[in-house]
Specification:
Blueprint: E1 2-5, E2 20-21, H1 22-26, E3 35-38, E4 46-47, E5 49-53, E6 66-70, H2 79-91, E7 96-100, H3 110-119, E8 123-126, H4 132-166, H5 171-182, E9 185-189, E10 195-199, E11 210-216, E12 219-227, H6 250-290, H7 296-305, E13 315-323, H8 333-348, E14 353-356, E15 360-365, H9 371-385, E16 389-395, H10 405-423, E17 427-430, H11 436-440, H12 445-466, H13 470-479, H14 484-491, H15 495-509, H16 516-536
Parallel strand pairs: 5-6, 6-7, 7-8, 16-17
Antiparallel strand pairs: 1-5, 2-4, 3-8, 9-10, 9-12, 11-12, 13-15, 13-16, 14-15
Helix pairs in contact: 2-3, 4-5, 4-6, 5-6, 6-10, 8-9, 10-16, 12-16, 13-15, 13-16, 14-15
């Protein structure tokens, strides 16, 4: 086997070496007098390589796209072998077989032509006077010239579209350039098929001629689509995975591929910008709720730039979610925020400032007619969408001035912490609901610990020595207003067991019904102990 050839560009999704169709090749001067005698349905096959067959086992050297020239000398006396070669060549993706009719093969076998017609594989009959070298030179020269033009066009397309990204262009600017380069209506669509930017008025009732997914580091982020001028209305909006349709020319496919790459760059830039804005926004908000502003005017200016009205009276509200089964909250803070925001926006009010935390959301929210009522609406909105989630909502008090937001945040945090201790993972509470805990919360930790030790020290020592639960029993007993039946039920113990524990508590404390002051001190100590436990679990 001898021959000269070029390969197609396999490293990119589109073909930089379009080659010649069989019909186009037959129009070249070097093939004057040649006839397409079989397989006319394959006249559109493209020629990328020209090779000459001298031996019967030529097939093992074939890669596809070849125009195979032969005198059939090696099989001149075996019509069956020549006919059997056609299905193999067609399967390997050759463009056509050109056979010189002459002294070695006076005529092409009818069986061979019938097989070629059935497979749509072109058979070209070459006149005896044609020179293989002329065909090699002219066909390959034409293919190389076309490839050079396509490479230059691809470079030009790439430079035009890349300039959009380098200049910080938007999706709209990218689509304007894509329309200019392709002559086709173009659009960027999101994952649901909604158009984000378009040029050339893409028809809403016609499927795109071609569509490519925008791949970013986090997966697909929509697609870029082209509509050819002669597209017919279809039932759907197209499939991003489908290959380019025949009516798109090669330069249009190249423009689409390059534009999709640039769109991915723009998508990544927009995500990075959004991430920076999110960090800036979160930083400012955390400054507002963590401490008094160092410069009131500067904080107000930065908030105004974010579009926030800090002149409104607001309370800090914390929303914390946890799963009670499979399919729980998202792993990342950003993903969780994106899932919760649509659920709470309406309930939080139009002027609410909302941002994500590790386990839920933080809100600066107007109280409306009732802060508690608005918090209950928040809770209902999340649990309605995710009934398998535990949802805790805790609110601080309303503050008129933004320099006091940090106080409301501290109160909301205290309410959330104590709420978990008193009510479990699912509740709605405001700081105003804490009652005596609000008073105890103003005391230093050392004072709370001293109160607990004075009133409950013997019980704590007994529990530590005997792995008992007298302190828990007393706590539940007092919270249930000394109702023994309810207390036993809450502790999941027999009523007689409860009576035994209460006698032990009386013995160690000197009696729960002793002097009113001592009884009050014991109850306060139980509340103080719960408050300390809650703070330890933060």
């Amino acid at each position: 086997m001898t021959g000269i050839g070029i390969g197609s560009a396999r490293s990119v999704p589109f073909d930089l070496s379009p080659g010649l169709t069989v019909s186009e090749a037959l129009a070249l001067p070097c093939l004057r007098g040649a006839r397409l005698v079989a397989g006319a349905k394959g006249r559109g096959r493209r020629i990328h390589v020209v090779n000459i067959m001298e031996v019967p086992d030529i097939v093992r050297w074939m890669r596809g796209g070849e125009l195979l020239l032969t005198t059939a000398y090696a099989v001149r006396d075996d019509a069956e072998a020549l006919s059997a070669l056609i299905p193999v060549l067609a399967e390997r993706g050759l463009a056509a077989l050109a056979v010189k009719v002459g002294p070695y093969l006076p005529a092409l076998p009818p069986v061979m032509l019938a097989v070629a017609d059935e497979l749509g594989f072109p058979i070209v009959e070459l006149p005896g006077a044609v020179m293989f070298n002329d065909i090699l030179s002219e066909v390959l020269g034409t293919v190389l010239n076309r490839q050079a033009l396509e490479l230059e066009r691809s470079r030009s397309i790439h430079e035009r579209l890349t300039a959009v990204a380098l200049d910080g262009g938007s999706y709209q600017e990218l689509m304007n350039v894509l329309l200019e380069l392709s002559g086709c209506a173009a659009a960027v669509r999101d994952e649901q098929g909604w158009i984000l930017a378009s040029a050339g008025s893409p028809p809403s009732d016609v499927a795109p001629a071609a569509e490519r997914a925008i791949e970013t580091g986090t997966g697909a982020s929509g697609s870029v689509a082209l509509w050819s001028s002669d597209s017919e209305p279809g039932p759907g909006l197209g499939d991003p995975a489908q290959p380019s349709l025949p009516e798109l020319e090669n330069h249009q496919r190249m423009a689409l591929e390059h534009a999709t790459t640039v769109a991915a760059t723009i998508a990544a830039q927009e995500r990075a910008l959004a991430s920076r804005q999110q960090r800036y926004r979160t930083l400012l908000l955390m400054e507002l709720v963590s401490r008094p502003p160092r410069d009131r005017a500067e904080t107000a200016r930065r908030a105004a730039a974010m579009g926030w009205n800090l002149r409104l009276a607001r309370a800090v509200v914390l929303v914390e979610v946890a799963s009670t089964g499979a399919g729980g909250p998202a792993d990342t803070e950003l993903a969780l925020e994106e899932r919760l925001l649509p659920l709470v926006r309406s309930a939080a009010g139009p002027d609410a400032i909302i941002w994500g935390s590790q386990s839920g959301l933080v809100l600066l929210m107007e109280p409306g007619t009732s802060l508690t009522g608005r918090c209950q609406t928040l809770h209902a909105a999340v649990t309605a969408a995710h009934p398998d989630w535990d949802v805790a909502v805790a609110a601080g008090t309303v503050r008129e001035d933004f320099t006091d937001y940090h106080h409301s945040y501290e109160e909301a945090s205290e309410t959330l912490t104590l709420g978990r201790e008193l009510h479990g993972p699912d509740f709605v509470r405001s700081y105003a609901d804490l009652g005596v805990y609000r008073l105890l919360g103003q005391l230093p930790a050392a004072e709370l610990e001293a109160l607990v030790e004075d009133a409950l020290g013997p019980l704590l020592a007994h529990d530590a020595e005997h792995e008992g639960n007298l302190v828990e029993t007393l706590s539940v007993y007092l919270l249930q207003d000394r109702n023994g039946v309810t207390t036993a039920s809450r502790l999941h113990i027999h009523y007689n067991t409860l009576r035994y524990r209460l006698r032990q508590i009386d013995r160690l404390t000197g009696g729960l019904e002793r002097r009113p002051t001592a009884r009050l001190q014991t109850e306060l100590a139980v509340y103080a102990l719960r408050l300390l436990w809650a703070r330890d679990r933060r």
